[in-house]
Amino acid sequence: MELWFTEYYTENVKFSIKVDKHLKSIQSDFQKIDIFQTPEFGKILVIDGYLMLTERDEFIYHEMIAHVPMAVAPIKNILVIGAGDGGTVRELTKYHHIERIDMVEIDKMVVDVCMEFIPQTSCRLKDKRVNLYFEDGLKFVKTKENEYDLIIVDSTDPIGPGAELFTLEFYENCFRALKDKGILVNQHESPYYKGDAEAMQNAHRKLKKVFPIAKVYQAHIPTYSSGHWLFGFASKKYDPVLDLKEESWNSLHLETYYYNTELHKGAFAIPNYVKKLLEES
Length: 281
Ligand code: AG3
Prior knowledge:
The protein is of the alpha/beta class. It is built from 10 helices and 13 strands. The chain has a 7-stranded mixed sheet, with helices on both faces. A hairpin with a 3-residue loop joins strand 4 (32-38) and strand 5 (42-47). Bound molecules: 1-{4-[(3-aminopropyl)amino]butyl}guanidine (AG3).
């Protein structure tokens, strides 16, 4: 009998990946966590029925969420919220000048499962500069003021435990937790199907209220809804394209498989229908 994992993008559209083996299935206090071995995408992590990452294409998401802000500003202290699989931290630890990465993941079980099954992403969680907190991200950030150069919100969708990471209150607290030139980058959903597009508009509307600069950038992620995914770049001072430090980033000679500084500039060029959705939000 064939086994398939299916994510429903809408009531009328679904995406399926053939499965070799169901490696793990647990219900944590917060959500259902599954790991599957697949022939096309390697191991995949699924939370509450939504695909979080595949070994085959996670580099796109993690490079884009980490290197875009890192190429814009001199960043030493970082807060990462969510990101339990470790992929975002893996990219950040490539920078020797980063001094501290506080990572706040609400669900310890996500980290434990990824440490056991997906070393490809969790391999740098033991870096000396990384401090792991298993706490509620909204509560954690409330206690911080003027502390971070960068906050990365690598969350699930705005349903379940991830919902509070898309609220105005959360963004206001992030603004306060950031230093005076601070940057917030978040996963910003997809512009394509209606439900995802509404989540994108909702996030953009709130970020615009709180930050003087609020832009979005895009990447092609084959295993997320529609394949067209967005990230938010909200900032107190730096413009993501005008302030790009192309030469200095390239002089670091970091190995990346998706990100480069040409693509960085292009990623902020947004299709007209997405611009319109953002303006309307
Ligand atoms: N980021 C998950 C992005 C949202 C995916 N949504 C979906 N499949 N409907 C967390 C995993 C990467 N670190």
